[in-house]
């Protein structure tokens, strides 16, 4: 009987231990399943949401900085509009400074006492300084009558002189109108033009013949040295002033030829040989 009780007790102990082992395994598997589910949720949902939140925060910070810059620029523009830097504002500030009363260097006792030399010296110095301060002032101040100069405003204005222009101007050219004689004769005035970019084989006779065909009489044509003689030739054409408009008319010249006033300083004499 005692042996049977021992066997039953052993069976109970074994069943209890088996039940405990099974319960522990179930709890452990549940914990593992919960942990795995939480990890998957964190990877699939929490981490992407966290990254998106960080991106939104960075964009918000950038937008906030841009807004602050725009606000500062707007304030600066409003300040410039309200307080423009101009000559009028500078003159107004200078006027406010000049309206302030000048410092008095003498006390009442020194002004009343004219007997001693020590009191008269600072008084005369102060008067001189105040005269210099108000020498060009046209604003009425408390000390203006006391330290005013002997000359009035009209007298000061009369002392100004308009500066004359000392630039050397060209003197008027004198042109003779008398009749020519056998000893002294004049020539007609001519205008010189530079004709360039003509064909290299073009000569003075060709240019002269072309000018006569266009109605320009008595032309004088000289060939000058061009920068690229192998590419084009250049000429100096002298005509009467009456033909200025005709010689500068584009329709009177072939395509490619250039005509302008002749500059003596840049031309070189033609070298033969």
UniProtKB/TrEMBL annotation:
Keyword annotations of the record: Coiled coil
Taxonomic classification: Eukaryota, Metazoa, Ecdysozoa, Arthropoda, Hexapoda
Protein name according to UniProt: Uncharacterized protein
Ranges in coiled-coil conformation: 53-80
């Amino acid at each position: 009987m005692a042996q049977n009780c021992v066997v039953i007790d052993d069976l109970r102990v074994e069943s209890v231990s088996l039940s405990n082992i099974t319960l522990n395994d179930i709890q452990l598997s549940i914990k593992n399943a919960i942990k795995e589910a939480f990890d998957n949720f964190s990877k699939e949902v929490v981490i992407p949401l966290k990254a998106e939140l960080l991106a939104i925060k960075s964009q918000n910070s950038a937008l906030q900085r841009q807004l602050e810059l725009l606000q500062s620029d707007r304030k600066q523009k409003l300040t410039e509009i309200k307080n423009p830097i101009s000559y009028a504002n500078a003159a107004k500030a200078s006027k406010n400074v000049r309206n302030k009363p000048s410092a008095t260097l003498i006390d009442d006792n020194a002004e009343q006492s004219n007997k001693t030399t020590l009191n008269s010296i600072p008084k005369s110095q102060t008067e001189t300084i105040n005269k210099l301060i108000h020498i060009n002032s046209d604003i009425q101040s408390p000390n203006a009558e006391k330290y005013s100069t002997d000359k009035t405003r009209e007298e000061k204005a009369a002392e100004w002189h308009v500066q004359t222009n000392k630039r050397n101007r060209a003197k008027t050219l004198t042109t003779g109108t008398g009749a020519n004689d056998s000893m002294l004769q004049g020539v007609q005035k001519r205008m010189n033009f530079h004709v360039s970019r003509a064909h290299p084989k073009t000569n003075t006779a060709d240019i002269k013949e072309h000018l006569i065909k266009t109605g320009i009489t008595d032309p004088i044509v000289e060939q000058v040295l061009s920068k690229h003689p192998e590419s084009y030739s250049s000429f100096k054409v002298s005509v009467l002033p009456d033909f200025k408009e005709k010689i500068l008319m584009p329709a009177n010249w072939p395509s490619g030829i250039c005509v302008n006033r002749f500059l003596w300083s840049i031309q070189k004499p033609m070298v033969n040989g």
